[in-house]
Amino acid sequence: MLIYDLHCHSHCSDGTLAPADVVARAVEQGVDVLALTDHDTTEGLQEAHNAAQNQPIRLINGIEFSSRWGRHGVHIVGLNLDLSCDELKQAETQQRQARLDRAEQIAERLAHKCNFQNTLAGAREFAGGECVGRPHFAQYLLEQGHVKTINEAFKKYLGSGKVGDVKQLWPEMGDVVDWITASGGVAVLAHPDKYKMTRTKLRALMGDFADLGGQSVELVSGLQVSGVAENLQKLAEPLGLLASCGSDFHRPGQHWQELGGFNPLPAGARPVWELFE
Ligand code: MN
Ligand code: MN
Ligand code: MN
What we know:
The protein is an alpha/beta fold. The protein has helices spanning 19-28, 45-52, 86-114, 119-127, 134-143, 150-158, 173-182, 199-211, 228-236; strands spanning 4-5, 33-36, 58-69, 72-79, 186-189, 216-221, 242-246. The model has no long low-confidence stretch (mean pLDDT 96).
């Protein structure tokens, strides 16, 4: 049986490995089909394809979009995308801009309310090309001696309810599903178990997701407590949602999110790859 890992990250988003190294590691781990799904960007796919060329692995074009459903943040994976689609490029630009706007707002607030200057430029240094987020601001505040630890930076300035706690306004889940569909891809609801929703809430989320054109749910996301996949299957199957699986790999050393390191789909589940094979 082939091993499909349809969710992982490289340093093009918040992973640590280069796309080529993610592919090499996936090969080592025995993965047969891999989707690289960086947050809101497909930038790493060209390098990943080059790396996969003479290797016993097949690479699927993927992405993981941030979106909102009501007051909840939910992640939607797009699989088997056509990278030449304008809709996809526009979507990536919009998400990048949303992150940028937020970083600017955080910097403005830190300047006006705490008199910390140049934090955006400083945070950007720590981000090293990736999108600037609160951890980068924390590193800069630490470097400047405004705080003694990263923890203190969050406690005083960046954490929940503090000056730098600017909420990111993500697009509606339906818009994200539309982007993926318009780009020839399949929309997959990522790691439903991580949203800490009640079963009733999860059922409503999956129902809406299916109504909006979503086609699949990650029944398996990394190492899970036994029974989780089967429970999700009971919610997803009646809605006609197909099953997906992935590690959500970000970096070596996290055995619960290792490439290919998860249990097979539960018995009877119809896999999402039926749609692109
Ligand atoms: Mn991540
Ligand atoms: Mn996610
Ligand atoms: Mn992820």
